[in-house]
Design goal:
Blueprint (H helix, E strand, L loop, with lengths): L5 E6 L2 H14 L1 H22 L8 H20 L5 H4 L4 E6 L3 E6 L2 E6 L5 E4 L3 E5 L4 E5 L7 H12 L7
Antiparallel strand pairs: 1-2, 2-3, 3-4, 5-6, 6-7
Helix pairs in contact: 1-2, 1-3, 2-3
């Protein structure tokens, strides 16, 4: 698949960034394991409380599951969301995709990335997320120009090599 260039402009909102962070978290091995452990520990603690086997206050015992299932993902989603670095990207972000990679531009910053730098891509009904070691690039597909969504999805699918299973 050879393309000259695919130009896309999106306007990000804080909500988009938080959702994309959660998508990546819940699809990462760490996020999956932390959530499963939290749910299992929570279920064990609730069963102990219901069966009357809980000694004393059950508050400390239930804290780890609450942290793993709720607080940790909230920290991932909202950490730094109102900082200066995120605020720079809450404007029109212009992406230019080609066979070698893509360029992301906001008024004060332009960066070029090769496809080999993209560690993973995530495509949902509402988002295309490109995960790099230093950043997430989030493209809300509902805000793309008509006809561009399929071309973008196909390009990302063909250019981002899935990481080998360990």
């Amino acid at each position: 698949m050879t393309i000259n260039s695919l130009d896309v402009t999106v306007t990000l909102k804080r909500k988009d960034i938080a959702i994309a962070r959660l998508l990546v978290y819940y699809r990462s091995p760490f996020g999956i394991i932390a959530t499963i452990i939290g749910i299992v520990l929570g279920a064990i603690q609730i069963m102990a409380i219901v069966q009357g086997r809980s000694s004393g206050s059950s508050t400390p015992a239930i804290m780890l599951p609450l942290i793993l299932v709720f607080l940790l993902p909230l920290g991932v989603a909202f950490g730094g969301l109102f900082g200066a670095a995120v605020s720079k990207w809450l404007t029109d972000v212009r992406y230019s995709f080609d066979d070698a990679g893509f360029r992301a531009s906001v008024p004060d910053v332009t960066a070029r990335f090769a496809w080999t730098e993209v560690k993973a891509s995530l495509q949902t009904g509402k988002y295309v997320v490109l995960s790099l070691p230093s950043a997430l690039h989030i493209l809300p597909v509902a805000r793309l120009e008509s006809g561009v969504e399929r071309e973008l999805r196909d390009l990302v699918r063909n250019k981002v090599t899935p990481s080998p299973k360990k």
